[in-house]
Write a structure and sequence with these properties.
The protein is α+β, with helices and mostly antiparallel strands and 113 residues long. It has two helices and three strands. It has two domains: 48 residues; 37 residues, no CATH class. The two termini are 58 Å apart.
């Protein structure tokens, strides 16, 4: 996209110079040439200052309350031992995906009081 913008700016700049050089005393032709030159400069400026797309990485940490120990978590359906890959966060809730039986359920926390 930058290449296309630079080509358009070069064409505008070329015609701007041609209008100014070929004015032969006609002030309106000089004005058109100056406007074309300003347009070319504006395109180049906007191409340079336009924010570049950046990649953002989001890390979400799960804080399980109470006496929950990840090494001791077991699937409530089959009793298989769960690891950290079995936990997933969706819309702020913690879900368990059992790799053994395929069960999916939400961890429900008891109130802390």
């Amino acid at each position: 996209m930058k290449l296309v913008t630079y080509l358009i700016a070069a064409v505008l700049g070329f015609f701007g110079v041609m209008f100014i050089v070929g004015a032969q005393g006609q002030w309106i032709t000089v004005v058109v040439g100056v406007i074309l030159m300003i347009g070319a400069g504006g395109l180049i400026y906007l191409t340079q200052v336009r924010p570049q797309k950046t990649e953002t990485t989001m890390i979400q940490k799960i804080d399980l309350s109470g006496d929950v120990n990840l090494e001791q978590m077991k699937c409530r359906n089959c009793g298989g031992t769960l690891d950290r890959d079995a936990l997933e966060v969706k819309a702020g809730a913690i879900f368990v995906n059992c790799p053994y039986c395929g069960a999916t359920y939400q961890i429900e926390e008891a109130p802390k009081w």
